[in-house]
Automatic annotation (TrEMBL):
This is EGF-like domain-containing protein. Residues 18-56, 77-114 form the EGF-like domain. Disulfide bonds join C80-C90. The keyword ATP-binding does not apply. Keywords: Disulfide bond, EGF-like domain. The keyword Disulfide bond applies. SMART domains: EGF. Coiled coil: none annotated. It comes from Homalodisca liturata.
Length: 157
């Protein structure tokens, strides 16, 4: 065998390429991925329900909430705060706030309820002939007494 050059030493082993198992995330929407010993570990984000890859918000439409709640910013919430005017009462029917003025109050329940004014009794026009100021056998017209036909004398006594 003849002489030949000594081969160069092999290059030192390159650092293995560390691949992040969470890039791209295998977990689906509304989820978070953690690298646990080189394997992805998926969980739903706080405020979201379900199991990855099917994490979802509490609601998307109000029909997904109880009838006395409405879907607001992906949460089932009471729709009353801020819906009605001053002094109004709010109830929720089929996810919708209903504003009313309480008993004894009036006004626009979406702006302001105020106490109802007391019912004013209509003033009875006074009748000068009731009770009659006239004596027997006399008649009254506009507070003036006259003797009936066939009678004479003082119509007031």
């Amino acid at each position: 065998s003849r002489c030949f050059p000594v081969p160069p030493p092999p290059p030192p082993p390159a650092d293995p390429i560390i691949r992040d198992p969470c890039v791209p995330s295998p977990c689906g929407p509304y989820s978070q991925c953690r690298d646990i010993g080189g394997s992805p570990s998926c969980s739903c984000l706080p405020e979201y329900t379900g199991t990855p890859p099917n994490c979802r918000p509490e609601c998307v439409i109000s029909a997904e909430c109880a009838s006395n709640l409405a879907c607001m910013r992906e949460k089932c919430r009471d729709p009353c705060p801020g819906s009605c005017g001053a002094g109004a009462q709010c109830s929720v029917i089929n996810h919708t706030p209903i504003c009313t003025c309480p008993e004894g109050f009036t006004g626009d329940p979406f702006t302001n309820c105020f106490p109802k004014p007391p019912d004013v009794e209509p003033v009875q026009a006074s009748d000068p002939c009731n009770p009659s100021p006239c004596g027997p056998n006399a008649q009254c017209a506009d507070g003036v007494c006259t003797c009936l036909p066939e009678f004479q004398g003082d119509p007031y006594s």
